TrEMBL record, chain A:
Keyword Transcription regulation included in the entry's annotation: yes
UniProt name for this protein: Auxin-responsive protein
GO biological process: auxin-activated signaling pathway; regulation of DNA-templated transcription
Keywords of this entry: Auxin signaling pathway, Nucleus, Repressor, Transcription, Transcription regulation
Subcellular location: Nucleus
Recorded family membership: Belongs to the Aux/IAA family.
Assembly behavior: Homodimers and heterodimers.
InterPro entries reported in the protein's UniProt record: AUX/IAA_dom (IPR033389), AUX_IAA (IPR003311), PB1-like (IPR053793)
UniProtKB/TrEMBL annotation, chain B:
Molecular function via GO: auxin binding
Pathway: Protein modification; protein ubiquitination
Name by which UniProt lists this protein: AUXIN SIGNALING F-BOX 2-like
Taxon lineage: Eukaryota, Viridiplantae, Streptophyta, Embryophyta, Tracheophyta
Pfam hit, one: F-box_5
Alphabetical list of SMART domains matching this protein: FBOX (SM00256), LRR_CC (SM00367)
Length: 189, 579
């Protein structure tokens, strides 16, 4: 009977190491302390304790999931072909943002934004200002602020002229210009 | 009765043959051949397509002897769990002996379809050399060959219609295999080389597409850039099935605009896939054809998140088949449910393939789909969590499931709300879905779920179980109740000798049984092998410890048994022991 109880627990236990290896006691989870009386009449409270302990364990031992050979069942072809793009999201593309008159600078991750609209909304919210509408001919109308950036050459450029991807790769730093300086940028010569 | 038989005997064979021509399913033809000797004889000479679900169940010589006019052969090799690294690579499943026999038997082979088999360049060269009428090669999840083998096929098969390579591991020798199609080759209808890693000569590809006016299906690999795709589409607006290559480009360019135009002209495309490398900003090029699509596979598209997916899918009102990653999220699935009323098949794959993190889909997404898509009959769903309540609702909304495969990230996770096992939920599924043929279960499960499966899943043919059950009773319920069971695969369950040996004759009615990390012992496997000569009972022991005197009480790591007419196979490697 005791042997059978062991089987019940082993079946539902998350183990470290390959399946089929001899059970090493130092890896036994705390949930094993509750033994089921018989396979048929599962005591609800014991099951809940088991499950609760297990789900607490799940959060902390997510690393052990990856040790189960062949689980989750994903074809090796799929595993080797799906590029998770994790590196991109971890490194980020942070640039400094300065605003004329603000006491300190901020930093934003350009990769987080889908495009100019997204970025400008975020800047408006971050600095509590309105930036106005972009037009190719007139720059930013309807506000005393204009967003500018420093490119690779060190030149100060108006945000919005070039495609977003190109902007992302050339933008080194953002500057929100205000007042007469903004007008100077925005107005076509 | 008597007069009926004699009436049938007056039918000349040609008439019988003509009638049998209308039977396309191999199951129907198998049934017909069992009626009487004369029907068996007529059927075997007229059978052109043969399906062999396990390449070790029969020998090529016997097959050719019975079906001398075979033109099309389908073979499957390794067991399904080989997909998940549970079977060593060189376990077996070689196609070489089959091809050699077919050559010797002077068979006029025109089609070969292989799944999970080991294919060598030599095999492909034999095919190319000895079968001048060869028309169709379909390889799924195979390995062992290189692009040199493909070059042989391209060079020599003058009437090739179909070259379809799905998810194979192919060594790329960068020998320009695609350029080997001669200028005289104009017969291609279907070309799929998505799984190849290397470059192909783009000019050759474009010329090939231009001269194959019957080309209906083209799936290129990631090395084919977007501007090349545009030129190809311009030449082949008749395409029905398209697999894109790399779908990354600056959308503010003329190339991209041309792609949009060419894509719009492809009014016949109903199936779209590829996107192994894709930029979300390029997806709008596809919007104009979304309304035509019946099949869409975005399951290899990295970095496309729910918002972008939804923008595309909301136009796909005719979609019947959708494959996506779990990045679509429950909300995205809600949009699918409201946009894709014709949906029949849905597969939601893990974006985090090592299953370490979280998925964005839960039981909510599944319920939404079941409520919105009444025609749903096939699902593969990887998810973070599940509840009985959700499964019961799904069962009520969709009684038409033929395939139901659920996989929870944590294999023994209980009902997320009640913390109970998921027995009742899956029970509802099998009770409601009377035509269920394939089932994979997951989560915290006791013997009760197997009681339900045995009682209700009367049409079930394939069952996959992992980390479930409490005792032999579970497995026994399935073996006793599921009369149509063909394939049973079990891992990490407490099923042992009592269940294995209870009904040994059952295994001759099935294709195969896989059990790994269970409780069966060597002794029991030996007993089974002794009593059932028409089964091969294989023990896979990767530690190479095939000792003569193995303790009968020792548990078996991996056992694979299958019915066969030809006894133990002779090509088993050292770590496979046929008892």
């Amino acid at each position: 009977m005791a042997h059978e109880n062991d089987l019940n627990l082993k079946a539902t236990e998350l183990r470290l190491g390959l399946p089929g290896t001899d059970e090493s006691d130092d890896m036994v989870s705390t949930a094993n302390n509750n033994k089921r009386a018989s396979p048929e009449s599962v005591d609800d409270s014991e099951l809940k304790a088991n499950s609760a302990a297990k789900s607490a364990e799940n959060e902390t031992s997510s690393a052990s999931k990856s040790h189960i050979v062949g689980w989750p069942p994903v074809r090796s072809y799929r595993k080797s072909n799906l590029q998770p793009k994790k590196e991109d999201s971890e490194t980020g593309m942070y640039v400094k943002v300065s605003m004329d008159g603000a006491p300190f600078l901020r930093k934003v991750d350009l990769k987080v934004y889908n495009g100019y609209t997204d970025l400008l909304k975020a800047l408006e919210s971050m600095f509590k200002l309105r930036i106005g509408e972009y037009s190719e001919r007139e720059g930013y109308k309807g506000s005393e602020y204009a967003p500018a950036y420093e490119d690779k050459d060190g030149d100060l450029m108006l945000v919005g002229d070039v495609p977003w991807d190109m902007f992302m790769s050339s933008c080194k730093r953002l500057r929100i210009k205000k007042g007469s300086e903004a007008k100077g940028l925005g107005w076509a010569v | 009765m008597h007069s009926f038989h004699s009436m049938l005997n007056y039918f000349p064979e040609e008439v019988l043959e003509h009638i049998f021509d209308f039977l396309t399913s191999h199951r129907d033809r198998n049934a017909v051949s069992l009626v009487c000797k004369s029907w068996y004889a007529v059927e075997r000479f007229s059978r052109e397509k043969v399906f062999v679900g396990n390449c070790y169940a029969i020998s090529p010589e016997r097959l050719i002897a019975r079906f001398p006019r075979v033109r099309s052969l389908t073979l499957k090799g390794k067991p399904h769990f080989a997909d998940f690294n549970l079977v060593p690579n060189d376990w077996g499943g070689y196609v070489q002996p089959w091809i050699e026999s077919i050559v010797r038997g002077r068979v006029n082979l025109e089609e070969l379809r292989l799944k999970r088999m080991l294919v060598s360049d030599e095999s492909l060269e034999l095919l190319a050399t000895f079968f001048p009428n060869f028309k169709s090669l379909v390889l799924v999840s195979c390995e062992g060959f290189t692009t040199d083998g493909l070059a042989a096929i391209a060079s020599n098969c003058r009437f090739l219609r179909e070259l379809d390579l799905q998810e194979n591991e192919v060594e790329d020798r960068r020998g320009q295999w695609l350029s080997c199609f001669p200028d005289s080759c104009t017969s291609l209808v279907s070309l799929n080389f998505t799984c190849l890693k290397g470059e192909v000569n783009l000019a050759s590809l474009e010329r090939l597409v231009a001269r194959c006016r019957n080309l209906r299906s083209l799936r290129v690999n990631n090395a084919v850039p977007l501007d090349a795709l545009q030129r190809i589409l311009a030449q082949a607006p008749q395409l029905v099935d398209l697999g894109t290559g790399s779908f990354v480009h600056d959308p503010d360019t003329e190339s991209y605009n041309k792609l949009e135009t060419s894509m719009q002209k492809c009014t016949s495309i109903t199936s779209l896939s590829g996107f192994l490398d894709v930029s979300a900003r390029c997806l709008p090029a596809v919007y104009p054809i979304c309304g035509q699509l019946t099949s869409l596979n975005l399951s290899y598209a990295p970095g496309i998140y729910s918002d972008e997916l939804v923008k595309l899918i909301c136009y796909c009102n005719r979609l019947e088949r959708l494959l996506v990653l779990d990045t679509i999220g429950d909300k995205g699935l809600g949009v699918v449910a409201s946009s894709c009323k014709e949906l029949q098949e849905l597969r939601v794959f893990l974006s985090d393939v090592y299953g370490i993190g979280n998925t964005a889909v839960t039981e909510e997404g599944l319920v939404a789909i079941s409520a919105g898509c009444p025609k749903l009959n096939s699902i593969l769903y990887f998810c973070q969590q599940m509840t009985n309540e959700a499964l019961i609702m799904v069962a009520k909304n969709c009684p038409n499931f033929i395939r139901f495969r659920l996989c929870t990230l944590n294999p023994t996770v209980p009902d997320a709300i009640t913390m109970q096992p998921l027995d009742e939920g899956f029970g509802a599924i099998v009770k409601s879905c009377k035509d269920l043929k394939r089932l994979s279960i997951s989560g915290l499960l006791t013997d009760q779920v197997f009681l339900y499966i045995g009682r209700y899943a009367k049409q079930l043919e394939m069952l996959s179980i992992a980390f479930a059950g409490d005792s032999d009773k579970g497995m026994l319920s399935v073996l006793n109740g599921c009369k149509k069971l063909k394939k049973l695969e079990i891992r990490d369950c407490p099923f042992g000798n009592v269940a294995l040996l209870a009904d040994m004759g059952k295994y001759e009615t099935m294709r195969s049984l896989w059990m790994s990390s269970c409780e069966v012992t060597f002794g029991a496997c030996k007993t089974l092998a002794q009593k059932m000569p028409r089964l091969n009972v294989e023990i896979i022991n990767e530690n190479d410890q095939i000792e003569a005197s193995v303790d009968d009480k020792q548990k078996v790591e991996k056992m694979y048994l299958y019915r066969t007419l030809v006894g133990p196979r002779k090509d088993a490697p050292g770590f496979v022991w046929t008892l």
